[in-house]
Every structure is written in structure tokens, then in C-alpha cells.
Amino acid sequence: MTQNDRQRHAMTREELLSLPASVDIVTAGRAFGVGRTTAYALARSGAFPCHVIRAGNSYRAITADLLRVLHITPENSEAAAEATAAASSDRTPSNP
Questions:
Q1: Which long-range contacts (CB under 8 A, 24 or more apart) does 80-83 make?
Q2: Using an 8 Å Cβ cutoff, are 34 and 75 in contact?
Q3: Cβ-count burial of 9 within 10 angstroms (0-12 exposed, 13-18 middle, 19+ buried)?
Q4: Would you state the pLDDT for residue 88?
Q5: Which burial class, exposed, middle or buried, applies to 78 when counting CB atoms under 10 A from its CB (0-12, 13-18, 19+)?
Q6: pLDDT one-digit tens code per residue, 53-88
Q7: How far is CA 34 from CA 81, 83, 87, 91, 93, in A?
Q8: Residues 21-64: pLDDT tens digits?
Q9: Which of 4, 26, 53, 65 has the fewest CB within 10 Å, making it most exposed?
Q10: What is the pTM for the complete model shown?
Q11: C-beta separation of 69 from 58 below 8 A
């Protein structure tokens, strides 16, 4: 996979925030910008960057931990920043 392929398949903040409670290891790998083979190798070796659960023959990554490792929370999302900026611009200065 080339650099352009990785960028094209990279996950946006909105996509990350809309993930279910756990995701397959390939999706988690996409969040970290690694491909399928690397994601499975990291999971097998116990070196995946977030908590991974082995479920039979597959691996699942816990989304909450994935977001924590990436420092992504709803509070620091672009939408929250825009809402905060809009709320502060709506405030009128009080008279002394």
C-alpha cells in the first residue's frame, strides 16, 4: 500500500467517533494508519497500540481505548470546538 492509499483510507475524526463499542483489527489498524498484515502481526505479538481482545480466531479492538490512545474525545472534536466558539460569540458583555 502506498502513502496515497493510506491517506485515502485514513479514518476521519467523525468516522472514529461513530465506531461501535469494538471493531475488527483491520478497522483498528486503519485508525492507526497501518495495514491488515501489520495490524494482525501487532495483535498476535501483543504490541497493538490499544487493548485487543482475542475472540476465537479473530481480534477485536475496544473502541474506547482506541480513541483514548489517539487522544480523541467528543469534547475535543471539531464540532464541539465550533459549538464552543459559537456559544462564546453569542454572549454579550454585561454592563457594569
A1: none
A2: no
A3: exposed
A4: 52
A5: exposed
A6: 998 989 999 999 999 999 998 765 555 556 555 655
A7: 28, 32, 38, 44, 49
A8: 999 999 999 999 999 999 999 999 999 999 999 989 899 999 99
A9: 4
A10: 0.69
A11: no
Residue found under cell 479514518: 11
The residues, any chain, with a CB within 8 Å of residue 25's CB and separated by 6 or more, are 39, 40, 43, 48, 52, 58, 59, 60, 61
Residues 6+ away with beta carbon under 8 Å from 34: 42
DSSP code, position 21: S
Q: What are phi and psi of 85, to 5 degrees?
A: -65, -40
3-state helix vs strand vs coil in the chain, percent to 5:
55, 10, 30
Note the residue count of the chain. 96
Q: Bridge-partner residues for 54, per DSSP?
A: 59
H or E stretch at 24: strand 22-24
